[in-house]
Amino acid sequence: MAVKKRNKTAYKGVFYITSTHPTTGVNEKIFYIRYYKNGKSIEEKAGRQHQDRMTPAKANRLRVLRIEGRVDSNEERREKIRAEREKMNTSRLWETFYDAKQENKSIKDDRNRWRAYLLKDFGRKIPEEISTTDIDKLRRKLQDRGLAPGTVKQGLVLLKRILNFGAKRGLCQPVNQAKLHFEMPKVNNIKTEDLTPRQLSSLMEAIETSSNKPAANMMLMALYTGMRKGEIFKLRWNDINFNRGFITLKDPKGGTDQRIPLNNLTRSILEDLPQKDSEYIFPGRDNGPTKEMRIPFRRICDNAGLAKDFRPMHGLRHVFASTLASSGQVDMYTLQKLLTHKTPSMVQRYAHLRDDAMMKASEVVGDMYQKMQKCGGQKR
Hints:
Elements: E1 7-8, E2 14-20, E3 27-37, E4 40-48, H1 56-68, H2 74-86, H3 90-100, H4 107-122, H5 132-144, H6 149-168, H7 197-209, H8 213-225, H9 229-233, E5 240-241, E6 246-249, E7 258-261, H10 264-272, H11 294-303, H12 312-327, H13 332-338, H14 351-379
Antiparallel strand pairs: 1-2, 2-3, 3-4, 5-6, 6-7
Helix pairs in contact: 3-4, 3-6, 4-6, 5-6, 8-12, 12-14
């Protein structure tokens, strides 16, 4: 390839070559500047005659600014652009966080929260640029959308977890608590759903008449065992020991496999189910585990006339626990084990039901003594 002729201009260190524009086909001058900076000879393009409206005088002014360091050289500008692109923004930090947390059961929920609550406002931000004002704006924005306090808190907590993760991995600066404050909304998670005898009767009737038998049987399983929705969805036939009368919950919420009793009501449901070509008791698509049954569950609850805020499967788990606690026949430790909670604190919400049952039981003695006293008085 022939070397194009360099043409001098009236300005020192400014020259041009003549070239054909690749798009228009018009011949034009391309101006270059040559100078020394920090002892290094630099030669770079200043611009095109027509496309950039470059002239020898403009090229000379650019050369002077570059020599004085008031304008970056082309290489310096390219380096800054590269550095900016490689800078760890919050989106890249999230991607690293997501890849590292694949074993977490909640990572899919985190991904949904990231996309719904954080990506738009924080994706392009550099972690060090995030301020308390940004956090406050996010909290107000989510609250203005009508999200529940618990949901707002989950979004804020996720952002904080991402930043802390980045700091521990050396991907960004540690969160400065003095400059970056996460004010969390107040959340009352102690929601114990229960059903009156009439509501429970209506629900049982709606379950019995439901055309969606898998959904109906899942709801009965939750009511009879207190199992979580996810545990029922992924329950396999080999998790059921019909001979010894136990159900094994593999990889439950607490992380450690648990065993719960197979009571007669649950046994009856399972024995009546047809065993299809799947290892799962309630198979979904492609004979894998069921992923979602929200609409059928909701329809059954609506047919029973239950409140819209009653959570079908989680609510039935509460009904199971409340029924046992109020019976007066089950202590809190046993209830904790049946619900597969790690600590007793999670079953304390049912303690008052147990106390009420004990109070009623103690009154039985008083009633008996009163009857005995009345009988004794009549004999005298």
